[in-house]
Amino acid sequence: MLHRNPWRDLALGAIGGVAGTLAMGWYFKAVGALQARRRRDQARQEDHAHHAAEGNTTPAGPLADIALLGPFYAAGENSTQAVGRWLYRQVTGGDPHSDETKTLLSELVHWSFGTAQGALYGLSRGAQPWPDLGGGLLFGSTVWLLASELAVPLLGFAPGPSAQPVSKHALEWGAHLVYGATVALTTQSLIAGLRE
Prior knowledge:
By secondary structure, the chain is mainly alpha-helical. Helices cover about 70% and strands about 0% of the residues. The chain is globular and about 55 Å long. The model is unreliable at about 50-60 (pLDDT under 50).
């Protein structure tokens, strides 16, 4: 029997968070490839002008902007890019100019947040019966709902929930389910390895 050690659970959860963030990236690449194929197939079947007009519609509603202090994101920017740019501005007083710096900042935000959330999983769940998929899926759903859907738009780093189509929310939720399941599998595997 392995006794509860919060520091160990925090560290192993952080490793799980790295694995989960990596899995989330693979998920987005796979879904992106499927979406690109679907768009190519649709383009062959639909009139080009009709397809272009359809792609330019942006749903809106009462929750399109829920930022408490105003929006901090720029057009075409995702939330990690917005946070990275905002942090850069706090440190340097200006915006990053090169695409390489913008990409690096976005990746640092993404990986830091994913690792930190994994550490919270390890701390909150500790040793569970392997593979703890239920706990991982619940954890991923919670991160998606509280962080991606609520906190990020409230802080002004992304548009509000009704500014995005339901399909985008479903895509993000799917990514967080993959993240949570991977965090749980990795963390519980590492903890189980220490038992032996």
